[in-house]
Amino acid sequence: MTKAWISVLLALAVLTGFAMGFAVAIKINPETADVYLLNLGSVGDWVSGIGALAAVLVTLWLSDKQRKENTERITVEQVSREEGLLIKIISSGNRPSFVTGLYIGEKSSEKKLNLSTGEFLEKRFPIGRIDFGELISVLVLDKFDLKIAQEVEKRFNGNFGSLLLVINTSLGRFHFPLDSVYVSYLKRHLEKQQRRQEYQQSLAE
């Protein structure tokens, strides 16, 4: 519950408590009813002030809610397929998104592996605007799995378990866990390459 609604409920509770207290006081001391009634004018000012405050708080809450709703939102679908990793970047917010980049990152590192250069993709990365419900679809080709795995090993010290898919827009940056199936493929390619190198070294000795 937001602070504005809590404030409104507190104001209503105060008003209700006052009304009940006033009624009880008159019932207990009927002879003082005239005194209470004379003071109702100042009490009315208090009630009016509380009502105005509640109205301001509600207005601020509605304004903040509208501001939060009028922001860009990005969701991502990742599917590991035989030909590679299919990535769908979807606009799910009220504000259009202008997508500018696609990267692989890692939680504890500022370094990034740029996928939007097109080196690892089926075709050039489509930088551009997407409105609500629209998407950008890219395919990271499986023939680059080993190279990507080697870059991950070098840039992120082999921290495959904390890899992120990073989407850059003109207004911000969005992070999503890199597809676990795809990560397992990367690790498998790297392990095969390492075993191959160890075998070749043993033959050379």
CATH class wording of the largest domain: Mainly Beta
Shape: elongated
Strand fraction band?
25-35%
Helix and strand pattern = HHHEEEEEEHEEH
Q: Examine the coordinates and then state which fold CATH places here, giving the name of the CATH topology of the largest domain.
A: Immunoglobulin-like
* Biggest sheet layout: 5 strands, antiparallel
- The total count of strands amounts to 8
In the CATH hierarchy, what is the architecture of the largest domain at level 2?
Sandwich
Helix content: 40-55%
User: Which stretches are poorly predicted, pLDDT < 50 over at least 5 residues?
Assistant: none
Helices, by number, come to 5
In short:
With 205 residues, the chain is of the alpha+beta class. The chain has helices spanning 3-28, 33-38, 40-69, 145-155, 180-204, and strands at residues 74-81, 84-91, 97-106, 109-114, 128-130, 135-141, 163-169, 173-177. Keywords: Membrane, Transmembrane, Transmembrane helix.
Secondary structure: elements and pairs:
Elements: H1 3-28, H2 33-38, H3 40-69, E1 74-81, E2 84-91, E3 97-106, E4 109-114, E5 128-130, E6 135-141, H4 145-155, E7 163-169, E8 173-177, H5 180-204
Antiparallel strand pairs: 1-2, 2-6, 3-4, 3-5, 3-7, 7-8
What does this protein structure show overall?
The protein has 5 helices and 8 strands. It is of the alpha+beta class. The chain folds into 2 domains: 3-69; 74-201, Immunoglobulin-like. The strands form 2 sheets. Strands 3, 4, 5, 7 and 8 form a 5-stranded antiparallel sheet that branches. The protein has a 3-stranded antiparallel sheet with strand order 1-2-6, with no helix packed on it. A hairpin with a 2-residue loop joins strand 1 and strand 2. The longest helix has 30 residues, at 40-69. It starts with a helix and ends with a helix. The model has no long low-confidence stretch (mean pLDDT 81).
